[in-house]
Design goal:
Layout lengths: L4 E7 L4 H10 L6 E8 L5 H8 L3 E4 L9 H14 L4 E4 L8 H6 L4 E5 L11 H8 L3 E8 L9 E8 L6 H24 L4 E3 L2 E3 L11 E3 L3
Helix pairs in contact: 1-6
The structure holds glycinamide ribonucleotide.
């Protein structure tokens, strides 16, 4: 196969999505390799897993850059460049980005959000989904643009919302679909099969791969 894209995964905490990407990338025919896991939180749980896997890890503590978001991002950018990163995957990276970093990675940075965008941008998505009484909820992988939780949608996974759900039970169901769609989305982007056209993502006509990116989990 052609060379695999060098990917950095950015995390802030647990890193279960990062883990799903690392596990997918173990397969030699996966079109991306995870070359760096970077966190804004030096104590992020996910860093130890990545370290055990033999992946380079880095922490750029945002607290060292109080009031200077761009300064923080410039420090992150230095580390990304040191590792010759080609694509960035945000996986539970809980920092709002400025136009600086988003601009550096235009069409080369993706994010996972725990809701079916464009519904429920921002935080507390599971609580709000329950409050609104939606019957389907889920997760979205999208390209990152300057507007928060916006940008061309690559993959979505939908799960049922049950009458008995609490935010925690719903979050767990959504998380399990996140772990399925994120590796698929990264593969599409890394292989060049996902194309952005007029703010939408499509694949070449003879390629059905993007079909795998609308996942519906039955009740
Ligand atoms: C995931 O549910 C992810 O979608 C969400 O944080 C969680 C991180 O879990 N991301 C956001 O809310 C981004 N705004 P993980 O660290 O176990 O992957």
């Amino acid at each position: 196969m052609t060379t695999r894209k060098r990917v950095a995964v950015l995390i802030s905490g647990r890193g279960s999505n990062m883990k799903s990407l690392i596990e997918a990338a173990r397969s030699e025919d996966y079109p991306a390799e995870i070359v760096l896991v970077l966190s804004n939180n030096p104590d992020a749980e996910g860093l130890s897993f990545a370290r055990q896997e033999g992946i380079a890890v880095a922490a750029v503590n945002h607290r060292d850059y109080k009031g200077d978001r761009e300064g923080f991002e410039r420090a992150v950018q230095v580390v990304l460049e040191e590792h010759d990163v080609e694509l960035v995957a945000l996986a539970g990276f809980m920092r709002l980005l400025t136009p600086y970093l988003v601009g550096e990675w235009k069409d080369r940075m993706i994010n996972i959000h725990p809701a079916l965008l464009p519904s429920f941008k921002g935080l507390g998505t599971h609580e709000r989904a329950l409050e609104e009484g939606v019957k389907l909820h889920g997760a979205t992988v999208h390209y990152v643009v300057p507007e928060m939780d916006d940008g061309p949608i690559i993959c979505q996974g939908a799960v049922p919302v049950l009458d008995t759900d609490t935010p925690d039970t719903l979050a767990a169901r959504v998380l399990s679909v996140e772990h399925q769609i994120y590796p698929r989305a990264l593969a599409l982007v890394a292989s060049g099969k996902a194309r952005i056209k007029a703010h939408k993502v499509s694949t070449p006509a003879d390629d059905a791969d993007l079909g795998e990116c609308s996942l519906i989990v039955p009740r």
